[in-house]
């Protein structure tokens, strides 16, 4: 029997969970298949997201004595960048195998990698983090779950804290029904809706070309909690 192409295996694993109406189950299945060499994790770049790196270079935040959380941290490359900037960093993912892989990838890490669900986060995380980093997690969830996910992201930001969101941008005017996820890229209105709490303000929104697809663009948004 011929072995399945790892890219096709990744898509099949996602669609099997989504068909079962289990919108987050496929992440663990994918990471564990990838750990066995039977699939690839399409978003695992082996390096931090360049838009996050640029944000750190431009903003030069001082993470000393500050806390940060990286949502849906996957194999840990963004969390490592955040921890290297001095933040006391928590990096969480719903997939236990992703967390194990991140710990294995970064054995000397200063970040704390934990299994947690964005939709059911520990009570002590509410409004607890000076820096919140959300990259590609919300867009990996079906559109019907995105508003709740966005609210949960906002709840992590401490008073005076910053939220950085990086996401693929949806083509202008494309209706929900025509988006065949995963992923389900975010409209401008959806990116703006991270600021739906009255004390969480959008302070910068950039749209830039995707390095992997010249016809696609990505958002980077920065929000500040009063
Ligand atoms: C598309 S991947 C992006 C991973 C990483 N942020 C990156 O940019 O490379 C989405 C990640 O979110 C995680 N995830 C999905 N739903 C989640 C949830 N409800 N709570 C925590 N993590 C979740 C997945 O396991 C996966 O690692």
Which key features would you list for this structure?
single chain, 226 residues, alpha/beta, Rossmann fold, 2 domains, seven-stranded mixed beta sheet, 7 helices, 7 strands, 31% helix, binds S-adenosylmethionine
List the helices and strands and how they pair.
Layout: H1 6-19, H2 25-35, H3 50-59, E1 67-71, H4 77-84, E2 88-93, H5 96-105, E3 112-115, E4 129-135, H6 143-155, E5 157-168, H7 188-192, E6 200-209, E7 217-225
Parallel strand pairs: 1-2, 1-4, 2-3, 4-5
Antiparallel strand pairs: 5-7, 6-7
The structure holds S-adenosylmethionine.
S-adenosylmethionine binds at residues 24, 27, 43, 49, 72, 74, 92-95, 98, 117-119, 135-137, 140.
How does this model look, in words?
With 226 residues, this protein is of the alpha/beta class. The protein has two domains: 1-42, no CATH class; 45-225, Rossmann fold. 31% of the residues lie in helices and 23% in strands. It contains seven helices and seven strands, in the order αααβαβαββαβαββ. It has helices spanning 6-19, 25-35, 50-59, 77-84, 96-105, 143-155, 188-192; strands at residues 67-71, 88-93, 112-115, 129-135, 157-168, 200-209, 217-225. Strands 3-2-1-4-5-7-6 form a seven-stranded mixed beta sheet. β2 (88-93), α5 (96-105) and β3 form a beta-alpha-beta unit. The longest helix has 14 residues, at 6-19. The protein is globular. The N and C termini lie far apart (59 Å). The mean pLDDT is 94. The structure holds S-adenosylmethionine.
């Amino acid at each position: 029997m011929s072995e399945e192409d790892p890219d096709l295996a990744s898509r099949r694993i996602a669609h099997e969970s989504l068909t079962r109406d289990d919108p987050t189950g496929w992440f663990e299945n994918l990471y564990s298949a990838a750990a066995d060499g039977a699939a690839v994790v399409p978003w695992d770049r082996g390096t931090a997201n360049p838009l996050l790196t640029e944000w750190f270079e431009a903003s030069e935040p001082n993470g000393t004595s500050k806390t940060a959380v990286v949502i849906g941290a996957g194999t840990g490359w963004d969390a490592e960048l955040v921890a290297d900037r001095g933040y006391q960093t928590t990096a969480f993912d719903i997939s236990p195998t992703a967390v194990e892989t991140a710990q294995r990838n970064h054995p000397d890490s200063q970040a704390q990698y934990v299994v947690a669900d964005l939709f059911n986060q520990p009570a002590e995380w509410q409004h607890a983090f000076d820096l919140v980093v959300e990259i590609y997690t919300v867009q990996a969830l079906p559109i019907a779950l995105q508003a709740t996910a966005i609210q949960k992201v906002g709840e992590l930001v401490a008073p005076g804290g910053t939220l950085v969101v990086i996401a693929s941008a949806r083509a202008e005017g494309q209706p929900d029904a025509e988006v065949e996820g995963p992923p389900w890229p975010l409209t401008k209105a959806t990116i703006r809706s991270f600021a739906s709490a009255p004390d969480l303000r959008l302070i910068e929104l950039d749209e830039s070309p995707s390095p992997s697809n010249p016809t696609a663009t990505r958002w980077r948004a920065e929000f500040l909690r009063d």
